[in-house]
Specification:
alpha+beta; D-Maltodextrin-Binding Protein, domain 2; 2 domains; 3'(2'),5'-bisphosphate nucleotidase activity; binds magnesium ion; 39% helix; 310 residues; binds 3'-phosphate-adenosine-5'-phosphate sulfate
Length: 310
């Protein structure tokens, strides 16, 4: 999905294809993770999880973007770090997974030369994504696996790729391999609503049933709003945690293009122009399916915030 589709049609085409390829890779790794005891998961310094899929997707996307747009002026901001992988027991599995993925790239309309990549070349591809973004020029933003915890548990996760130009997100692709195609099935909570819609208007125009909260890992939360499976996503991180741009760029654009509104709790747009972090965020993030609802939620958050500080 892109604003100015004509200007960025090549970028959009490559982004969609590479996210498809990455999703196929993730599905294979998730299946093998759930069916074998082989260790494919590590903990990082911050105690969060990282898997063969996180590293492999970052290498694949980096390599394909380099081949498509040249590595010279390519800037990629992404989550994973090559140095950590170089010291990990996951390296060989990552190299195998990356090369396996490249061998099926033509099926996704993508070309990769000089394969298979050696371990050093894989590390180089991952390490190339060490840009810190900023207000000038073009930056690709990648979260290779968002919601790694959900991924490891066989649950929801997303591959998120966005393009920022002059500080604005202009393109976002969100691959959600476990998201049900059939509307509503993401948490089965729509069953009641669909039963109600076949009843007479008298039955359903009055009163309301408060829906159960939708509990999903990762940026799939933004996808659920864009798809009409949820209306509100509020995210207030624990004190001291700074939100990173790759956790939001693609999802925010997709919600906006579906007619939703995403701001911080002060009603200001998220600022993707200040490096790796969403600097200046007022309290937290509020994503809504529409403008009227958004305005009411901002008001309600303000009111309850003031009360809670009394
Ligand atoms: N303390 C804290 N507070 C808020 N957010 C944090 C925190 N720590 C990590 N992260 C980032 O959140 C990403 C996953 O978000 P979710 O809310 O979907 O969490 S989870 O998937 O249920 O674990 C997760 O993204 P991935 O690492 O890509 O899974 C993290 O970047
Ligand atoms: Mg992570
Ligand atoms: Mg993430
Ligand atoms: Mg991630």
């Amino acid at each position: 999905m892109a604003e100015g589709e004509f200007l960025f049609s090549k970028e959009l085409d490559v982004a969609v294809r590479v996210v498809h390829l990455a999703c196929a890779l993730c599905q294979r790794v998730q299946n093998s993770l759930l069916s074998t005891n082989a260790s494919q998961v590590n903990s990082k310094d911050d105690d969060s999880l990282v898997t063969v899929a996180d590293y492999s997707v970052q290498a694949v996307v980096s390599q394909i973007l380099s081949e498509s747009f040249g590595s010279q002026n390519l800037s990629i901001v992404a989550e994973e770090d090559a140095q950590t992988l170089s010291k990990s027991d996951l390296l060989q599995a990552v190299v195998n997974t990356v090369n396996e993925s490249f061998s099926e790239a033509p099926r996704f309309g993508l070309k990769v030369s000089n394969i298979p990549l050696s371990p050093n070349q894989v590390l180089e591809a991952i390490g190339r994504c060490n840009s810190s973004g900023g207000p000038k020029g073009r930056h690709w933003v990648l979260d290779p696996v968002d919601g790694t915890l959900g991924f490891v548990r066989g649950n929801q996760y997303a591959v998120a790729l966005a393009l920022i130009e002059e500080g604005r997100v202009i393109l976002g692709v969100l691959g959600c391999p476990n998201y049900p195609v059939k509307k509503g099935l993401v948490n089965h909570h729509h069953q009641l609503a669909s039963e109600m819609s076949s009843a007479s208007p008298d039955m359903w125009e009055k009163g309301c049933v408060m829906k159960k909260p939708l509990r999903v890992y990762s940026m799939v939360k933004y996808a659920a709003i864009a798809r009409g499976d949820a209306e509100i996503y509020m995210r207030f991180a624990t004190a001291g945690y700074k939100e990173k741009i790759w956790d939001h760029a693609a999802g925010v654009l997709i919600v906006q293009e579906a007619g939703g509104v995403v701001t911080d709790a002060g009603g200001r747009p998220l600022d993707f122009s200040r490096g790796v972090y969403l600097e200046g965020l007022d309290r937290g993030i509020i994503a809504c399916s529409g403008a009227v609802l958004h305005e009411k939620i901002i008001g309600a958050v303000d009111t309850s915030w003031e009360c809670s500080l009394l």
